[in-house]
Amino acid sequence: MDTAEAMLSVLVVLIILVSLLSNVLVLVCFLYNPEIRKQVPGLFTLNLTFCNLLLTVSNMPLTLAGLVNRGAPGGHGMCQAVGFLETFLSTNSMLSMAALSIDRWLAVVFPLRYHSKMRHRDAALVLGYTWVHSMSFSTVAICLSWVGYHRLYASCTLSSARASNRTQFVVFTVFFHAFTFLLSFVVLCVTYLKVLQVARFHCRRIDVITMQTLVLLVDIHPSVRQRCLEEQRRRRQRATRKISTFIGTFMLCFAPYVITRIVELFPAVPINPHWGIASRCLAYSKAACDPFVYSLLRHQYRKTCSDIINRVLKKQSSQNATGPGQRQNQHQGNSIPSAE
What we know:
Blueprint: H1 3-32, H2 34-38, H3 41-58, H4 60-69, H5 76-109, H6 114-117, H7 120-143, E1 147-150, E2 155-158, H8 166-216, H9 222-264, H10 273-296, H11 299-321, H12 324-335
Antiparallel strand pairs: 1-2
């Protein structure tokens, strides 16, 4: 193992640890807070979290084993099962992000009709479509034996070693990435850019009201006026920063891997094996980023985490306050029969 492979192995280990801990924390917050469970976007977040967790415990360790051993981990049947899961979970997670963007678009553009347009039943139907969509591509790949160990990515994924059906595999690969990555990216851009447009419109209205108020308050202190202007600037930047994070992390993590898969279809173009594994690590890193992008950085999840920590610390402090001697005295007092 050379230096680059050692660094990539360490990177995969870090991604596994961060993804496992962060996604488990999202699940804990979902189970702890009933308000999160009542919200419709919580279903999409829950589905995305389960996909990331399954990808973390099933595919990432085998990629690490393939990188260390420089060969296929496990038998052929196991690799096919893991490759099927990889295709299904990757597609499902992308479509879940697209569903979250549609939910935000409905909430911002149609705030008064949101609860009638997006109910739990509607969210369940959207999730059902994502599962059928993901299952269809995975089933076709496994039935046509287009799933196996790929040395370029050191993982069990879409692969075709037979030259007889190469044309069909090329067509399938192009369609697969067009209806997963490209479709999700287009939905993200259309919905979030519309959300950004509406957010900027509301910011301009608030800015006009704020400036009119500052003009009327001639005796206002300059520091207060400066704080109001700074709040205006932060308000305009906040929406842009959030939208850029949603779209930027999607492109940064998935685009290199998808582009590499498309370029790989042309045998005349050589691809560095280290780059193939690095692009795979970038795609894996999305599972570690999603809990922070969609959940843990939100105020509701931060407050839930704080409540859980405070409850655990309070329980530990109460146990420490009740020493072993005091607990023994309580036990002896409870064991003494009462005199009648």
